[in-house]
Specification:
10 helices; eight-stranded mixed sheet
Length: about 325
């Protein structure tokens, strides 16, 4: 048995990775593609030999030959499309960030729980071998007592003012939503619950959302996290660093997988590259989880945690429950 997928949104990320990941997964079949632009939809369907194509998402949700949908549309469509998919009994894997705000995330979670369908979020970096190696170093005590985690990332694109990624009502924000969310997901995955958020966001002179955000986080266990993210910067590293009392690990390019470990025995270099298609392990895990009746590796509850942090950062207040106003 294979999961029959409907792909909602056949733009950049779908063409680069999602469609290929579904087509190549042994437990998946790409059954339907959906995009409003009919000419581009037809070209996409030909490229991946998709048997059915439709211009309306609701028509995909209504099909009996679709078991799950991958939602790869702008952020403002994630919640309504997830609710419709769940109401039609479809499992949902949705692009990150999960939704415009935490309330929408919770509505998505509850809708899928009521419908008895799975909900996953596309934070695929959790599957990177180099991230798994960092997790091993933390849990084994190799770094001593963990103190902090740092991420710095940027996107060189100079987005025009009418791009949905920089319109608050469509993308939810700027680099904090678009690329910062991936790193916040790793923070939570590696260090656990965040209880306090301090943030500074600088609005771009060229578009509505911020083009720079810096966050200082406090985790429940006392460690600190620092995130810096940018739009429009050239050659910005995609750095992840964890510092402990007895060592540190530094990754200068998460998508490449090179790692430097410094501990009591000295400095060593390791290389743990990701799958050639970053989305492939994510799609494979989700399909296997549906077939196996288990929770996906990155569930809706997991996905909401990054959105909680982002919402607190934009609001300028600590996360609710931290004991502060």
């Amino acid at each position: 048995m294979a999961i029959r997928w409907g792909l909602i949104g056949c733009g950049d990320i779908a063409e680069k990775r999602v469609a290929d990941a579904i087509v190549r997964d042994e437990n998946s079949v790409l059954q339907v593609a959906c995009r409003r632009d009919e000419a581009k939809l037809a070209a996409f369907a030909r490229s991946y030999s998709v048997p059915h194509s439709m211009v309306e998402a609701d028509a995909v949700f209504a099909r009996d030959d679709v078991d799950a949908v991958y939602i790869a549309t702008p952020v403002d469509l994630h919640a309504p499309q997830t609710l419709s998919a769940a109401a039609s009994g479809k499992h949902v894997l949705v692009e990150k960030p999960m939704a415009l705000d935490a309330i929408q995330c919770e509505l998505m979670i509850q809708a899928c729980e009521r419908a008895g369908v799975s909900l996953g979020v596309a934070y695929y970096r959790r599957f990177y071998p180099v991230v798994r190696r960092v997790r091993e170093l933390i849990t084994s005590g190799k770094l001593g007592r963990p103190l902090s985690i740092l991420a710095t990332t940027g996107n060189a694109n100079r987005f025009p003012a009418d791009d949905w990624r920089v319109i608050r009502s469509r993308g939810g924000g700027g680099p904090l939503m678009d690329i910062g969310s991936h790193r916040l997901d790793l923070f939570v995955d590696l260090f656990g619950e965040v209880v306090d958020v301090k943030a500074k966001c600088s609005r771009s002179p060229d578009f509505e959302s911020e083009d720079m955000a810096t966050l200082l986080l406090e985790f429940k266990t006392g460690q600190h996290g620092v995130l810096q993210c940018y739009f429009g910067t050239v050659n910005t590293p995609d750095r992840l660093e964890v510092i402990g009392t007895d060592g540190r690990v530094t990754i200068d390019d998460l998508n490449e997988g090179g790692m430097v470990l410094v501990d009591a025995s000295g400095e060593s270099h390791e290389h743990h590259p990701p799958h050639e298609n970053f989305h492939a392990p994510l799609v494979s895990d989700f399909a296997a989880s549906v077939l196996g009746g288990r929770t996906p590796r990155v569930s809706g509850r997991d996905g909401k945690l990054a959105s909680d942090i982002i919402e607190a950062a934009y609001a300028g207040f600590p996360i609710a429950g931290s004991g502060e106003p």
